[in-house]
């Protein structure tokens, strides 16, 4: 398994020596998920923080009519999980599923606590990661309330470059909170500008 991507991700916020790198890597598990396979389902406890090395995951909920509401996509070099379930070790309320064949690195809650004790600078890394996640979620809620569908779509393209070519239009529409048909019209109108 190649750990270069996750180490580069971490090096944005903390510097590790060789011993710390080796220790961190020893705490990770690698796993693959086939397209459409669930990583997490409501009622299960989220046992891992998940780092995507290849592929794409989606975090979503279903409303009482069975419609998907996608909260986020996690592509290469992204972390994901159900933060509430992971931290509190209570049942998850969301689904995480693979949109493509996906490879991930996992760190369990127990191994994360061990990492914090042995390499305290990781507390800084995950604090920054969780803060950024909170900021992103607040922005996402604000955008869903105050932005037009076109503005949300343009933000999607900026946030997830090239993902539009990788996943079905239906998934993008579920993320934007619009129908696939409306997304098609929106794309055509933007192409004319």
Explain this structure.
The chain has 193 residues and is an alpha+beta fold. The chain has a domain at 4-118: Jelly Rolls, CATH 2.60.120.10. Helices cover 47% and strands 22% of the residues. The protein has 8 helices and 8 strands. It has helices spanning 4-11, 18-26, 83-88, 109-118, 121-146, 149-159, 169-176, 180-192; strands at residues 29-33, 38-40, 48-54, 56-62, 68-75, 79-80, 95-98, 102-108. It has a 4-stranded antiparallel sheet. Strands 2-7-4-5 form a 4-stranded antiparallel sheet. It is globular. 26% of the residues are buried. The mean pLDDT is 94.
Gross geometry: globular
Span of the ends, CA to CA: 45 Å
Give the strand order of the largest sheet, numbering strands 1, 2, ... along the chain. Answer: 1-8-3-6
Radius of gyration: 18 Å
Report the CATH C-level class of one domain: Mainly Beta
What are the segments in which pLDDT stays under 50 over at least 5 consecutive residues? none
- The CATH architecture of one domain comes to Sandwich
Q: Decide which structural class fits the backbone.
A: alpha+beta
Number of helices: 8
Largest sheet composition: 4 strands, antiparallel
Give the fraction of residues assigned to helices. 40-55%
Overall pLDDT: 94
**CATH homologous superfamily of one domain - what is it?**
Jelly Rolls
């Amino acid at each position: 398994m190649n750990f270069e991507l996750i180490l580069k991700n971490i090096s944005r916020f903390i510097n590790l020596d060789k011993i710390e790198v080796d220790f961190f890597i020893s705490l990770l598990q690698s796993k693959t998920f086939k397209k459409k396979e669930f990583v997490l389902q409501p009622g299960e406890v989220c046992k891992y923080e998940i780092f995507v090395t290849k592929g794409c995951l989606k975090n979503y909920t279903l409303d009482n009519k069975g419609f998907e509401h996608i909260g986020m996509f996690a592509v290469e070099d992204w972390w994901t999980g159900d933060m509430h379930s992971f931290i509190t070790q209570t049942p998850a309320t969301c689904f995480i599923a693979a949109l493509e064949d996906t490879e991930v690195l996992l760190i369990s809650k127990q191994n994360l606590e061990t990492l914090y004790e042995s390499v305290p600078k990781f507390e800084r890394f995950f604090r920054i990661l969780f803060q950024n996640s909170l900021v992103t979620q607040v922005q996402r809620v604000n955008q869903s309330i105050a932005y037009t569908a076109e503005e949300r779509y343009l933000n999607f393209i900026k946030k997830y470059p090239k993902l539009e070519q990788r996943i079905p239009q239906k998934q993008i529409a579920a993320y934007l909170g619009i129908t696939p048909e409306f997304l098609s019209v929106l794309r055509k109108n933007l192409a004319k500008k």
